[in-house]
Amino acid sequence: MSNILIIDDERAIRKTLGEILSYEGYKIEEASDGEEGLKKFRERTFDVVLCDIKMPKLDGLEFLDKAREANPDVPIIMISGHGTIETAVEAVKKGAFDYISKPPDLNRLLITLRNAMDKTSLVTETRVLKRKVSKVQEMIGDSPAIQRIKDTIEKVAPTDARVLITGENGVGKELVARWLHEKSNRSSGQLVEVNCAAIPGELIESELFGHEKGSFTSAIKQRIGKFEQASGGTLFLDEIGDMSLTAQAKVLRALQEGKITRVGGEKEISVDVRVIAATNKDLLKEVEEKNFRLDLYHRLSVILIHVPSLNERRDDIVLLVDKFLENICAEYGIAKKDIDKAALEALKQYNWTGNIRELRNVVERLVILSGKVIQREDVLNNIVQRS
Ligand SMILES: Nc1ncnc2c1ncn2[C@@H]1O[C@H](COP(=O)(O)OP(=O)(O)OP(=O)(O)O)[C@@H](O)[C@H]1O
């Protein structure tokens, strides 16, 4: 059911409108002045607002400004009394959806409301569609390092070459893997991700290759492993440096032969999988320390993509912050906040250990805690708060 907020200081008008619209099946909320209206508007999302122009405390135009700042997607219809038609026209120029005159004409009111509702559903639909079209998040940055990575993705993605992605935590290794899959001929298949560090050693084999019923105590049902799930698509082995040596031997065999055997099973099953692996470890050092098989390393690292840390490409911070501000404010349904030059400089100077993931979190905190323009002070307070 659609929610409508009616803001008018005349009780009689609220009552008439409220009765008509409840009868038409709308859910009604009332406010008797602009201030109360704004409070309710900020507390929850309405489908449409009907707002009087002349009101005590906060008048219709002031309400319009503040409400659009808080959520520009909600259509606001002005209610114009005697002598306020010109103001109503001005309000429409400033972003009000339309206006109706007092006393309200039933047909005109219902048609205007219907149009406003249609607009709301179009806005929502467009947002959903936009999200669907760009399944993979854009890779932001124009530093030489990022440009080189984008070039490599273009060249390597359409081949079946295995790729090893290296870099610190939160630099964007998974994003690189997603783009490699998206731009490959396998993009209609699945991208199946396995976080090798998060799975206990004794379960990793069953996770990767599946198991037959009864093959070990907790194997109550037959299970399909990630290799099989990813057949026709891409298998992304994240944190590969944390995989046990036993599992490494089995992965090597799967890569050499293109076949797997489920745990406790006999049958060999062919799989058509492209493997992309990622790690924050120095795998060659792990090889030296006998924690990682050299032959597997060579199998996985046909193409190497190193994603440098944020501290090594500080110029990208400007673009990233701008995009995060836009995305986060849109998620919160508020107008985009700005960032002062000195504040941006403070972000550029900071020693980022959590990389882009940490930067996004800081920007989200700044959006929540700062005013319309984020100041250097806000940044410093935030970073201090973190540690
Ligand atoms: N260039 C970029 N532009 C925009 N967002 C990015 C970029 N790189 C990374 N991100 C975002 O930063 C977050 C962390 O990235 P991602 O998960 O790819 O890092 P990771 O290196 O795989 O981290 P971990 O090693 O901890 O798994 C994600 O939300 C990702 O979408």
UniProtKB/TrEMBL annotation:
<keyword id="KW-0547">Nucleotide-binding</keyword>
<feature type="domain" description="Response regulatory">
    <location>
        <begin position="3"/>
        <end position="117"/>
    </location>
</feature>
<dbReference type="GO" id="GO:0000160">
    <property type="term" value="P:phosphorelay signal transduction system"/>
</dbReference>
<dbReference type="InterPro" id="IPR027417">
    <property type="entry name" value="P-loop_NTPase"/>
</dbReference>
<protein>
    <submittedName>
        <fullName>Putative two-component response regulator</fullName>
    </submittedName>
</protein>
<dbReference type="InterPro" id="IPR025943">
    <property type="entry name" value="Sigma_54_int_dom_ATP-bd_2"/>
</dbReference>
<dbReference type="InterPro" id="IPR001789">
    <property type="entry name" value="Sig_transdc_resp-reg_receiver"/>
</dbReference>
<dbReference type="GO" id="GO:0005524">
    <property type="term" value="F:ATP binding"/>
</dbReference>
<dbReference type="InterPro" id="IPR003593">
    <property type="entry name" value="AAA+_ATPase"/>
</dbReference>
<dbReference type="Pfam" id="PF00158">
    <property type="entry name" value="Sigma54_activat"/>
</dbReference>
<dbReference type="GO" id="GO:0006355">
    <property type="term" value="P:regulation of DNA-templated transcription"/>
</dbReference>
<dbReference type="Pfam" id="PF00072">
    <property type="entry name" value="Response_reg"/>
</dbReference>
<dbReference type="InterPro" id="IPR058031">
    <property type="entry name" value="AAA_lid_NorR"/>
</dbReference>
<feature type="domain" description="Sigma-54 factor interaction">
    <location>
        <begin position="139"/>
        <end position="368"/>
    </location>
</feature>
<dbReference type="InterPro" id="IPR011006">
    <property type="entry name" value="CheY-like_superfamily"/>
</dbReference>
<keyword id="KW-0067">ATP-binding</keyword>
<keyword id="KW-0805">Transcription regulation</keyword>
<dbReference type="InterPro" id="IPR002078">
    <property type="entry name" value="Sigma_54_int"/>
</dbReference>
<keyword id="KW-0597">Phosphoprotein</keyword>
<keyword id="KW-0902">Two-component regulatory system</keyword>
<keyword id="KW-0804">Transcription</keyword>
<feature type="modified residue" description="4-aspartylphosphate">
    <location>
        <position position="52"/>
    </location>
</feature>
<dbReference type="Pfam" id="PF25601">
    <property type="entry name" value="AAA_lid_14"/>
</dbReference>
